[in-house]
Each structure stands twice: as structure tokens, then as C-alpha cells.
Amino acid sequence: MFDNDFHPAWLPDTALRTVGSRRLALAADAAGAPPADAAVLATLETELGRATTAHGGAVVGPDDSPDLLLRLTASSAPGFRLVRHDGRVTVTAASPTALLHGYFHVVRLSVAALDAPSTDESHAPASALRMLDHWDNVDVHPVMGQVERGYAGGSVFYDAGRVRTDLSRVTAYARLLAAVGIDRVSINNVNVHAREARLLTDDLPEVARIAAALRPYGVRTHLSVSFAAPTTLGGLPTSDPLDPAVRDWWRAAADKVWTAIPDFGGFVVKADSEGQPGPFAHGRDHADGANMLAAAVAPHEGLIHWRAFVYNHTQDWRDRSTDRARAAHDHFAPLDGRFADNVIVQVKHGPMDFQVREPVSPVLSAMPGTRVALELQVTQEYTGQQRHAVYLGPAWSEVLRWQPWDSSTVRDGGTPVTVADVASGRGPGRRAGGFAAVANVGDDRFWTGHPLAQANLYAYGRLTWDPTLEPTAVLDEWVSLTFPDAPAELRAAIHAILDASWQTYELYTAPLGVGFMVRPGHHYGPDVDGYEYTPWGTYHFADRDGIGVDRTRATGTGYTGQYAAPWRDVYESPTTCPDELLLFFHHVPYGHVLHSGKSVVQHVYDTHFEGVERVARMVERWDEVAHLVPDDVAHRVRDRLAEQLRSAVEWRDQITTYFWRKSGVPDSNGRRIY
Amino acid sequence: MFDNDFHPAWLPDTALRTVGSRRLALAADAAGAPPADAAVLATLETELGRATTAHGGAVVGPDDSPDLLLRLTASSAPGFRLVRHDGRVTVTAASPTALLHGYFHVVRLSVAALDAPSTDESHAPASALRMLDHWDNVDVHPVMGQVERGYAGGSVFYDAGRVRTDLSRVTAYARLLAAVGIDRVSINNVNVHAREARLLTDDLPEVARIAAALRPYGVRTHLSVSFAAPTTLGGLPTSDPLDPAVRDWWRAAADKVWTAIPDFGGFVVKADSEGQPGPFAHGRDHADGANMLAAAVAPHEGLIHWRAFVYNHTQDWRDRSTDRARAAHDHFAPLDGRFADNVIVQVKHGPMDFQVREPVSPVLSAMPGTRVALELQVTQEYTGQQRHAVYLGPAWSEVLRWQPWDSSTVRDGGTPVTVADVASGRGPGRRAGGFAAVANVGDDRFWTGHPLAQANLYAYGRLTWDPTLEPTAVLDEWVSLTFPDAPAELRAAIHAILDASWQTYELYTAPLGVGFMVRPGHHYGPDVDGYEYTPWGTYHFADRDGIGVDRTRATGTGYTGQYAAPWRDVYESPTTCPDELLLFFHHVPYGHVLHSGKSVVQHVYDTHFEGVERVARMVERWDEVAHLVPDDVAHRVRDRLAEQLRSAVEWRDQITTYFWRKSGVPDSNGRRIY
Fold it and tell me: Cα A3 from chain centroid?
């Protein structure tokens, strides 16, 4: 059972104060609506009642001069339309879920939505597909725990080997998601272990219970499945995607899923990656595998999210010609055009694995004939594990706004195509794969362990709805909702702590795009050589003379050639390569002078000392304003910041010591290095 | 339930062929004997019957002219006496267990015992205390498994959270131990987790079942206990060793143990070490803690084995003044003279933790007023984990024969005192603590995973019975028993594989006594910097100029000062320090020239290439003779040797690459380094 006294995140009752004090109306006929729509309309009624009861307003009839009228209309437009006229606001949408999103839009804007000049605006998400992937296990995994790469306690869905009896918190979670426009959730780990595989079959009634808990807020359920399920669950002799019996098995399995859950979304698959089964074992390729599943779910308008995170994780560290960064493009780009319409190839934002700094994955712009989704990581696996305050909005914004081609490749309106455009179907291929991300919530009282990590979940929803938003503005929204009536002092402090926190984290961890340098296994804290001699393909090649990975076409792995112009040339030369990615693309001497004018090694010293100083200031800033937030938030954040400072010092000392011991170059500022 | 088709180790039926073909007699009156003695006498009867039934001899009366007469006599001498006269052999002993050891002595010598010229010999072990410590868990530990640092499957005692129902294999194990003279076993992990703690109380009847399974072969049972048991099991508010209620609790607990198991041996304690509770929490020292337990067990003539493995495992890697090597001496030497008579301070052979090469612990010679036991590690945690063929007899022999003082410190007979003498009560203090070792067996078919690792268990028993034995001769004994009628070719091959295997392992792993360089956690395979920035106190301090730990009095941690002369001076200077310990005691430049005439870095290159070549030859030798052993042995050894070769190559490449990248000094032989 849950302690229902969990933190309200960005929907405390006071966030509904303004809307709840008005006259609200809902114009929608639930009669005859599909059950999923009816469920959301019922939620809207409940939400209006809840807000007005709490704050003195009233739910009135559509014709009773409501201040805010929510109306379901027949339309083919996505999203919702907001008309404000004569001090009254009407939100219309073609679907109950879009109407719910419109309602939360008004909640978010509050007075600015209700009491502003007349307007007529249409709001639609960049892409119809905005999804969160949970890496939750049903059974507690002996190494990975209940939630793989989870830093916020146990799972909201599962506890100790079964689906939770009380799923009320799942509904509360769906409400938070609806308020930021997320409407799809995959509920189990893409590393599908034996227990979790059964969600697809024996435990379908339990999955249906989860779907029922998500549904009232318009959130659809997806499942991660094992490609070997026909063998492991079905008892077939093979899982060959071209085998008719295998195809029949998946078709029958899909039929049963949709019978149990008519609004089910589809399957997420990690195949032939890090030990997960896939089509390779049967001599088939990823298109064969994905299309077979696509055929099984097509009658139900289901989707297959097929992850492009495929590489050789048993690489030989001695072999410098194999480059993990190349792998996804090498595997998938040649398959462009072969994937079925309901297959979405889900591509991590960088070519490696959610490092604090990576170039944008070249796969995103290499498959115009494929629906490609951008995959982000909200859970902070490599960015402080929700013990460090790291606001990822700016990092994602940088990726979303990145232009894979030169300015001659434009979208409607003539602006150069961005990654967000590609994912939204506005790139050259005009095929939308949308957005996916690994979730960061658990059964922790604050949902995300670190209370400030809530801002990442919030920003993921907001930035994928509208990738042109400024991440600091999104942060401000989050502060306004989460800390209603926050004094300017608190608002300023949170901005001071979070705005540049991603760069701060970068300052004190792996430098110049080199990546990793984390403790193997749990990935928390520094271990410069931790992965250097492992099979994982994540090396820095430091010796006494220099460091970095030569990924050039001229002398390296040729990875730069996977980019379109101009990037294939920008990255090719250390002269034009951006400093922050230098060691990702080039092996350079420690004395190499950056565009900043500093040598690589002095840059490493300076950034690491600066990073720690910045964290020390974050601690101070919080101490100054902690009295302005509830005690539980104040204490939790203080504890986490103390750990962040300890960890940042450890990072600084290990990294500077490593570079000093290797290079023998003293710090020009004479600071303490060990 | 066990598969009883496990390997017979050094007691195959054919090993009893000679004895079993003769006329054997037992002269002993079990009437009135204590139950433990009666059980061993019954075993002797069974053994004689079993051997003669299988091999055509006969059990006859003592007066029926037996070829071998075993007679229990009244005597105060330890061990047994063997008189051979007129072609008849009489073995006499004062205790049934010693008589059993005498019987297995005859089995081992076979024809050489029965058909040789007349003789009158007395055989007694160096020390009355020769013990094996099992680090077996009752519950499977989520990280450490059923047996901590176990490389031979599950536990012979426990399975899935309980004591095994069928303990017949425990008795078979006791028989193997009796055949090498081991008569004490501690049956649970010194890291006493919650489940295991209950062996002392609720599960005492189950412990009694294990004791009953060991007893027929004269093996007495000891338990590892948690110092916090009065609190965690007894519900007392404190475990302070000077608190009367705590003392009463332990006294009562001990009374119950001895009531259930009258021949129980005593308790093993790991206190204030690696997170285990101990007296420090109560402001008491190790003597206070040990003596309190000693008082509780004294009425039953019980022993307390109190481990000296105490150090700060949350050290700061930046702090070069703290030296883990110093810790045991710093903690225990000042307490010399304060421990009760039935306390044995159990000291690891080296100051660190069972590395392939360490100096001998200075604690062993620093406590003349204390019973000090030498602790060895039969389980190959840091020496290849029973995947590598590493015969440890020569390593232990080196420790046992090591002379902690100069030649003026002599024992009876005038020979210089050795470590074996100290442990056997022939050192300056004349107090015997005996020998203890971490066991290497599990429920694996071959007992030890690697069939050749059986030789280590055998050698531990034989070398602690008689530390003057040559380890190669002991190996020969083991071959003769394990592979009866082994052709010279097989015998030669096993010697070729095992005789120098310890040095071979040293050649391809951490060089020159520097230690560790293993993967953190599981400790298998190389990771040169794996522990370099951790809290564990195991560093090498490599930079681009040099490597090693300065433990001198002049400029380092002062550890050399813990030794008596001449070692305090021998180790102090790199000129006199033995090459194989150079990096343990000194931080030197890569170009430092060893006594061998090679530079440190060239030595590292040469030894690592040579080590791999040696393993390749081990593989070849086994392939040549594998047809001479049973198929199961042949295949298992072949598989393990293949893994050893793979692992040795990995060690070679990582170590040579690390030294090359750090030093920039090329291999003078131009071999491939990465």
C-alpha cells in the first residue's frame, strides 16, 4: 500500500486556485463515446468539481456564462484551440485527452489564461507521440533492483514480484503526465527478464489494471516485450520472425492484448542489444524483426517502438577500429525504407549512451524513409542519479534545436530543419516518430528522489510538446506551479541552482565530450579507467602524451563520415570541432590548445575546480532560501546537495589527479592535486 | 539432495588397495568412551571393514597376527606412534582421532608403510590446532552468493536458506579432512549476516546435525558469531563486552551450544572489520571483546579465534600517511599479553589480503604473549579463483619457513625460529595458536571447481601438520593418491603444470609485490586502477614517472619499522629489498634497475609475456596427458586451462599497456603492446 501523503509535484491544490475560483463548464456528451474517451471526460468532470470545491468557484452549464468552457468538438485538428473573448475562455478539442491537456494549459497559465486580452490560439504538440519508458522490473532484480537505473525508490507499478494492489498512485502519476501533455507510457523494462516477459501473457489482467489506472488521464499503455517470447513463453522451437508459426503466435498474442486493453498502445523492443534476443539469431535483420511485430499489431493500430541502441558489448579494447559510436548508424541506416509504417525506430540522442555531452546521433538524420523517434533519458543515470541537481532542459533543448543539415534543408516556413522537426515529421522524410524518454519516477515521496529532479520530468513533457520553448522559461513554469506564490528570492535561487546545472555537472565530470569515466556497473561517481579495458566500447585511450578518441575519416574510425555536411567536416578537424566535443572526435596531446586559449590539461584543471566552486555556491543558495519551502523539501534538497558537493569534490580530485599523474603537467594555478 | 557421484578426491577406493588387501585389526574399547571418541572408533571399524571388503583383506582380532594393528593407548603424547617390526605394523595413539590420522598415514604411504624395514616413529602435528574456516552463507547472499569468495558451487552445509537435509557429503568431506589431519572446521562466514547469526540460537539443532556429520571423522565444529548478537539476537540494549548482562547473555548462549554439542570447538570472530560490529562501538578494545567471549566459553574449554584483519576500509585515497599494511600491527601489537589463554589471534599471512605476493605479516612476530594463529587462504580469491591452476603449497611453504628474526632467535634444537614455529608455540613466547585457512570446497562435483585445486586443500592439511615438508613432495603424495598408478608421464605433466604455477600466476598479474590491480568487487581479472581511487587502502600510486608504495621509515608510512631486525632494514632500502617485494615497500621510477639487472618496466613486460607463454605450455602439457585421467577430470581441467590462458592474455595486455601508456618506455623486445 502507498503512503498517500506523497508530494503533489506541479499540481498542488494551490496551483488550481485561480481556475478553481471561477465558473467552469464542460460541454461534452459522453454517451456513445468509446470507453477510453468516456473515462477521460469523467476525469474532466472530476477535475472541475475538485478545483471549484476547493477554491470557491462553481461548475456550471455551458450556457450559464462560464468563465471557462471546455467543449468537445468534431475536428480533425490535433491539440486544442483556446479562444478568449469578452473575458471568457473557451477551449475546444476533438478528443477528450486533448481537451484535458487544454484544461491543464489554462491551469498552468492561470491568470494569464483567464484574464488577458482576447485571443484565438491553436495549440498542438510538435508530434502526436510523446512517451515515457519505464525500466521497471516486476521482480526486484538482484543487481538492478526494482527499477533499472531508477533513483527514486521502487516502482509505482510493481512491488516485490507483483503488480501493486493499490494503483491509486499510478493514476496520480497519470494526472501529472496529463498536465505536461504526455499520453503514452511503457510500463516495464526493455531488458525483459523472465518474470516480466509474462506481463504479455499470464499477467495480462494485471496489465489491464495498470492501463485502467492510467486511462482516466488519457495515458495509453505500452509494453516492452522480449523478441524471444514465442520460444520462452510460447514453447515454439524458434522465434524466427519469418517463421509462420512465430508470426501467428505474435498475432494471437497481440489480439489478446487488445482484447484485454482496447486502447493499448503497442510494444517496445530492445533486440540484439546487450544480450537481449533479436532477429540476428535467426539470420534476420532488424527490419525483418520489427516488421513481423508490426504486422501483428497493425490490425489494432498498434505501434512498434524498436530501439536503435544496438552495438557490440563484447568488444575487444585492443581493437581501435571498432567504434561503438558508429554502431547504430551502421546497423540501421542501410535499412532505411524497409520498416513498416507502424514501426518507430527509437534513437538515443547521442551515439553512445546518455552521457553528459555527446554529439547528436547521426542516425536521426540518416533515415528519411523511416519513422524515427528521439530518445532522451529523464532518469539521471549518467548525470548524477538524482543525487545531483542537474536540470536537463537545456541539454535536451540543444539537441532538439540542433540542425543536422546546413541551412538549405528547411521545413515549412523556411527555417532550417532541426532534430525536433525530424522527430515531428517536418524533416526531409516527413515521417514522425515522436519522442520517447526513460522515466525518472518511483515510489519515492517526491516521485523523483531529488525534489528538483521533478523539473526534468516536467521539462520533458513541455519541451516535447513544444521544442521551441526556452528551458529556463519551462523551469519558471515548474517553479510557479510547484511553489505557488514563490517569492522572487526563492525563484531566483532555484534558477541560480538549476539553470546552468547541466554545465556545472559537465565541468566536474568527464571533460570535453570524452564520456564515461564512471564506476562500472552502477555508473555513479568517477573511475577514469573504469571502462578503459572492458568490452563495452567506451574508451578514452589516455596515455602519458594525450587523450581522446580519433573518430575522423582521415586517421580514425570514420565516424565523422556518418554525418551530413557541414558536420562531417566540422567534426573532422580539431580546428573546427567544438571544444566541448574535442575528445569525442580527436585524440590530442595534453598541450593541445582549445579555442578557449587554454591547453586541454589546464582546461581540465580549471573546469574541475570551477565545477566544485559552483556546487558550493548551489549549497549556499539553497541554505539561504530553504526556509521558504516546506520542511520536507528543504531537508531532502539540502541532503542531496551535500552529497553532490562531496561527489563533485571526489570527481574533481580523481580527474585532476589522473590527468596530473598521466601528463606530468602542473596546474598553472598551483591548486592541490594528489 | 546431493548427487552422490562426486569425485573421490584423494581417497578413491584404489587408494585403499594395499591396506585393504591385508589383515587389519583395531584394539580399542569403545565402552565408556565419550560419545565423540566412540563415534571415531566406530568410523575406524567401518573404514577397516570397507577397505578389506573391497580389496580382499580381512579384519582380524588384535591377537590374530594382523599386518596392521591400530591400538588406542593411554599416553599423553600427541599424534601417533608407528612401530614396524617383523613385517607387522602397529600404530598406537592416545585418542581415536589421532589413531584415525595414523591409519590414513598408513593408507597414504601404502607399501612404504607396510613393507619396509623395521622402524619406531612418532608422528605429531606441528600444532594441535589445524582448522578450516568456511565462508558459507545459509541464505544466498545477493552479491556474495552461497559461499563468499567460493569458487566451487554452493555450500556443502547449506542450500537455499537452510541446513541441508542430507549431510552425507559433509561426512565425506570430514573423511577427506581426516586423511590430511584437519580436525576443526568453522562452518559459517565470518561476515555474519542476519540469517546466519541465528545459527547460534534458533538453529542450534541444525548446527548439531552438522557437528554430528563431521564428528565420525574427528572433526570438531566451530561457529562464526556476530559481536552484536546480544543486541540483534538477544534484544539487549547494548553489546558492550564489559556490560554484565552482555556477559551473561554470551555465557548462557555458550552453555546452550555446548549442551547441544558437547565437543563443540569455539567461536570465530571478525570484529570491527569491514563493517562487522565489534568492541570499538562501546569504547572497548579487541582484548576486552575477545576476553569477554573467552570467559563465556572457558568453562567448556572452548576457543575464541579473533581475527586480526582490522583496518580502515573507508580510507581517503588522497591521504598517503594512512597505510592499511600497518593496521593489524597498530591495532594488535599494543594488546600483546592482554588476551586470555583461550583466545587465539588469527593473523593473515600478509599485511594486506591474500595477494599473490606480500611480505609476511609483522604481527606474527610481534605478540609473544599471545596465542597467534597463521591464517592462509586455500580458496583462490586473489590467485585465480579456481579457474586458474595455481598450486599454493610453495607460497605457504615460503611463509611457514620464513624467519621473522635473525638467526640468533632459535627454537629447541637450535634452528632459527620460523613462522611455523611461532604458530606452533616454538617461538619466543612458546604460545601456540596453530593454523587456520579459508576453505576452498563447495558442492561442486570435484569439491573445488578446478580438479587440480584439490591439491591446495591437501597441501594445507599436510603442510600445517608438518611445515618442513617440501611442497613438491606433498604434491607427489596428492598425485599418487588421487591418480593411483599414475604413469610417470602423467605425474611429470602435473608437476610441470603445478610446481611453479604460483610463480606463473605472479608473472602475469600484479608485479613486484604491488598487489591488487584486480577488478573491484569480484576480484577476478585485471583492472590496474580499479582500487586506485577507492576507500579500500590498496593503492599503487602510479604516475608517468614511477610506481609503488613508500612504506619506509625514512620517507614513507613507516611500515618497515613494524619488523624486527634484520627485516626492518632489509626492507627499508631499495638496494636490499628483494625484487619481488620492491613495489610493496618503495615508490621507484620505471627505470629503476632491479637486482636482476632489468628496469622495472622491462621486468613488467618480460614477466607478463613469459607468464602467458608458461600458461600456453601448461595447456599443451595437459593436452598430452589428458587421456590418462578420467574423462570428467580431463574435460574440466581443459576448460579451466583454456580460461586461464584467456585470462592470462588479458592480464598481460592490460598490465603491459598500462605501464606503456604511463611510462612511454617501449619494450626492448618490441612485442605487441596496445
Answer: 27
B543 touches A at CB < 8 Å? yes
DSSP-assigned states of every residue in B264-284: --EEEE--SSTT---GGGGT-
Active site residue A381: yes
Catalytic residue among B136, B159, B353, B421: B353
Rounded to whole angstroms, how far apart are CA atoms B554 and B664?
Answer: 30
Q: What's the alpha-carbon Rg for chain B, to the nearest Å?
A: 25
Residues in chain A: 674
pTM surpassing 0.80?
yes
DSSP single-letter state for residue B16:
G
The reported pLDDT for the residue numbered B138 is 96
Q: Judging by DSSP bridges, how do beta strands B343-348 and B303-307 pair with one another? A: parallel
Amino acid A293 reads: L
Q: Which residue of A has its CA nearest to B660?
A: A543
DSSP H helices, B215-303, are 229-232, 244-260, 286-297
Taking CB atoms and an 8 Å cutoff, what residues of chain A touch B542? 661
Note the Cα A539 to chain centre separation in Å: 25
**DSSP track, B373-392:** EEEEE-S-TTTTTTTS----
Task: Tell me whether residue A144 is exposed, middle or buried, using C-beta atoms within 10 angstroms of its C-beta: 0 to 12, 13 to 18, 19 or more.
Answer: middle
Residue with cell 578389506: B52
Q: Where in chain B is the domain with CATH 3.20.20.80?
A: 130-482
Residue B121: other Cβ atoms inside 10 A: 12
Q: No. of H helices and E strands in chain A?
A: 21, 20
pLDDT surpassing 50 at residue A1:
no
Contacts of A543 in chain B (CB under 8 A): 660-662, 664
C-alpha B191: how far from chain center: 17
In this structure, are residues A595 and A582 in contact, taking their beta carbons and an 8 Å threshold? no
Neighbours of B594 (CB within 10 A): 17
pLDDT (tens digit per residue) in A414-441? 999 999 999 999 999 999 999 999 999 9
Neighbours of B175 (CB within 10 A): 21
Mean pLDDT of the region A270-290: 97
Is residue A43 within 8 A of residue A217, CB to CB? The reply is: yes
In CATH, the architecture of B130-482 is Alpha-Beta Barrel (3.20)
Q: Which three cell numbers stand for residue B83?
A: 612401530
- B624 with B493: CB under 8 angstroms? yes
SS3 B27: strand
ipTM associated with this complex = 0.89
Active site residue B274: yes
Residue B115 touches chain A, beta carbons under 8 Å: no
For residues A559 and A576, give the distance between their C-alpha atoms in angstroms, rounded to a whole number: 16
| Residue spans of beta strands (DSSP E) within A254-407 | 266-269, 303-307, 343-348, 371-377
Which one of the listed residues B381, B572, B606, B667 is annotated catalytic? B381
**Residue A143 exposed, middle or buried by CB count within 10 Å (0-12, 13-18, 19+):** exposed
pLDDT tens figures, B311-341: 999 999 999 999 999 999 999 999 999 999 9
Helices (H), B541-630: 567-570, 582-585, 600-625
- Cβ–Cβ gap A533/B660 under 8 Å: no
**Where are the CATH 3.90.1330.10 domain residues in chain A?**
506-549+587-663
Residue B152, CA distances (Å) to A138, B156, B379 in order: 31, 10, 9
CATH of domain A130-315+324-464+471-482: 3.20.20.80
- Which of B317, B528, B542 shows the shortest C-beta gap to A661? B542
* Angstrom distance (rounded) from CA B471 to CA B227: 38
CATH topology of domain A13-123: Chitobiase; domain 2 (3.30.379)
Could you tell me the fold of the domain covering A506-549+587-663? Alpha-d-glucuronidase, C-terminal Domain (3.90.1330)
Please give the helix or strand (H or E) that residue B172 lies within, else none: helix B168-178
